[in-house]
Amino acid sequence: MWYVIWTSTGSEGKAQELIGQKSRRCFFPTRKINKKIKGEWKTEIRPLFPGYVFADTDDIEELSNFLRQAEGFNKVLDTDKEFYSLYGDDESFIENIYNNDGMFDVSKAVVEGDNVRVTAGPLVGMEGSITKIDRHKRTAYLKLKMFGQVIRTSVGLEVVE
């Protein structure tokens, strides 16, 4: 089962190494974005959810106890009664990113009036999550319901028409 671990922003790689010792699978999702630097488009890779690492484990109690003793600040997200595990659409979303080497790649879309139709990439079928498109920056802004809360993030989007 997938669980969400909170860590300091920028420490996702170190947390992944640490958590990987006590879990079946562990990763922090990344995203490709295109950025114009000195007149040229460059591809950058950044965390999709800064400060969050995902771990697949059957023994979340053991992982949580291990993290409490580890150096640095890592915490398994929880509710008042239990650790927060991903299920349903959240689990499918994370599993799809994991199966794509942890990368949320740049999508391609066509804009028809006020409607956006994503033709290729991980945003296919997620058009309802797009809140804004910045064609100049080649970016789509998303509003996702994850970990029991609303998360806002941005991903790469090429508008081809």
Strand content: 35-45%
- For the secondary structure, the number of strands is 12
Rg from Cα: 17 Å
Largest sheet: 5 strands, mixed
Helix content: 10-25%
The pLDDT mean sits at 88
Helix/strand/pairing class, anyone? alpha+beta
Q: Report the principal-axis shape.
A: elongated
CATH architectural grouping: 2-Layer Sandwich
Q: Point out poorly predicted stretches.
A: none
**What is the string of helix and strand elements?**
EHEEEEHEHEEEEEE
- Examine the coordinates and then state which fold CATH places here, giving the name of the CATH topology: Alpha-Beta Plaits
Strand order of the largest sheet: 9-8-12-11-10
> Would you state the CATH class?
Alpha Beta
Distance between the termini: 40 Å
What's the number of structural domains?
A: 1
Mind explaining what this structure looks like?
The chain is of the alpha+beta class. The chain is 19% helix and 44% strand. It has a single domain, classed as Alpha-Beta Plaits. The protein is built from 3 helices and 12 strands, in the order E-H-E-E-E-E-H-E-H-E-E-E-E-E-E. Strand 11 (139-146) and strand 12 form a beta hairpin. The radius of gyration is 17 Å and the shape is elongated. It starts with a strand and ends with a strand. The relative contact order is 0.20.
